[in-house]
Amino acid sequence: MKIYFDENMPFAKEFFTELCLLHSDAGEKGELIAFSGRTLTAEQVADADVLLVRSITQVNEELLHLNTKLSFVGSATIGTDHIDLEYLERRNVTFHSAPGCNAISVAEYVLSALVVLAERYLINLADLTVGIVGGGNTGTRLSEKLQALSINYKICDPILEQKQAEGNTTDERTYSSLTEVLACNVISLHVPKVEGGQHPTYQLINAKNLALLRDDQILISACRGDVIDNHALLALKESGHGLKVVLDVWQGEPDVLAALIPFTEIATAHIAGYSLEGKARGSEMLYQALCQQLAVEPVYQLTNFLPSASIPMVEINAEFNQILLNQLVKMVYDVRRDDAIFRQQLFIQGFDSLRKNYPIRREFSAVEVTLLPNAFSDVPHRLGFSKKSN
Ligand SMILES: NC(=O)c1ccc[n+]([C@@H]2O[C@H](COP(=O)([O-])OP(=O)(O)OC[C@H]3O[C@@H](n4cnc5c(N)ncnc54)[C@H](O)[C@@H]3O)[C@@H](O)[C@H]2O)c1
Ligand SMILES: O=C(O)[C@H](O)[C@H](O)COP(=O)(O)O
């Protein structure tokens, strides 16, 4: 069996080598072949049985028309807007993505951005209400962390709200309208890219919605670049509007509207989901899905491969407050590192190279926090830091 995988998929060799050797017919050589996602061609994947991609590879007829043996496509990502799902269905090719794989990573990116901006502008985080657009995996993980910190939030998700109204869900959350969420102190976008239909997200934040925003608000986008009209945002900022902007995703990636960068508080190269755990969970989920397709019991799990964090343990001996939160969050992930790399290197290395060479970043769970007698609250554990195992 020939398995082709994106070179930017951690632990792919560890997870998939055995599968491609075990599942090769007599005479056929099992092979695991890495490719560069942006430049993959139809000729390269003409003999693939399995294709494992990331979001930068468009999987469609153009890519697959020379291939007659493909049976499985996996994307180690949450978003699936790069996949022609109808085409795969017509071809009877099984497709799996990795829902939720990097949702914690995105939530920790947003939290790091909030902590950095709170310090920069002397904001008391407890005074904020965060408006979350999209209450799926990433929006929910974010809301859990905000709840741990007693920060108010509102969620807008007309699709989940509709399901709730129809009674076919156990979800008991209260949903808000887009207008309500756009009035919050912070607006954080967590929707897929959807063009057309009843609830399109393509340029959801357009000139009309941007005109509703106040100078004191923070707008964060770590979902898809097309959800914000980048030219309208640039025009707003050029007019002197005070909106604070955090952008991880950009219209037209890997090209970026360069003029917008100086108007952002934090700018990064679509890496919100790039914790080691987040990316590796994507590989693990595809491994499990392929095992299922091949009717093989999975042997490996992520915990077999994840290294220890460089600071694996911390003891806290003081009451939890914003200063402590600041120290703790930035110890694990300080988004200013990625912002600095982006500003200095984007036009030297290029967008894709910044992503490919992303430095290792861990999730809060990689650090064990021990609460000593003067630490009265377990907020760190509720935020996702690990407890000492007995
Ligand atoms: N920057 C990154 O690194 C990164 C990482 C992970 C995911 N993403 C992007 O974020 C998106 C969301 O991720 P997720 O895991 O939360 O996906 P998800 O599918 O779990 O949740 C998306 C939610 O958005 C809701 N939604 C759809 N249209 C909406 C609309 N018009 N208004 C409000 N809500 C709407 C859906 O009902 C759903 O609940 C992904 O599709 C992906 O494109 C980016
Ligand atoms: O959709 C996702 O899961 C994220 O946007 C993910 O981080 C994309 O990363 P990529 O596949 O482009 O490496």
Could you describe the 3D structure shown?
A 6-stranded parallel β-sheet has the order 7-6-8-9-10-11. The chain is of the alpha/beta class and 390 residues long. Helix 3 (85-90) links the parallel strand 4 and strand 5 (94-96). The longest helix is centred in the first third of the chain and has 18 residues, at 103-120. It has 14 helices and 13 strands. It is globular, with a radius of gyration of 22 Å. Helix 1 (12-22) packs parallel to helix 10, helix 4 (103-120) packs across helix 5 and helix 4 (103-120) crosses helix 11. The protein has 2 domains: 2-97 and 275-304, Rossmann fold (3-Layer(aba) Sandwich), CATH 3.40.50; 102-272 and 321-390, 3-Layer(aba) Sandwich (Rossmann fold), CATH 3.40.50. 34% of the residues lie in helices and 14% in strands. Residues 78-79, 100, 102-103, 106, 133-139, 156-160, 190-194, 199, 201, 222-224, 248-249, 270, 272-273 line the site of nicotinamide-adenine-dinucleotide.
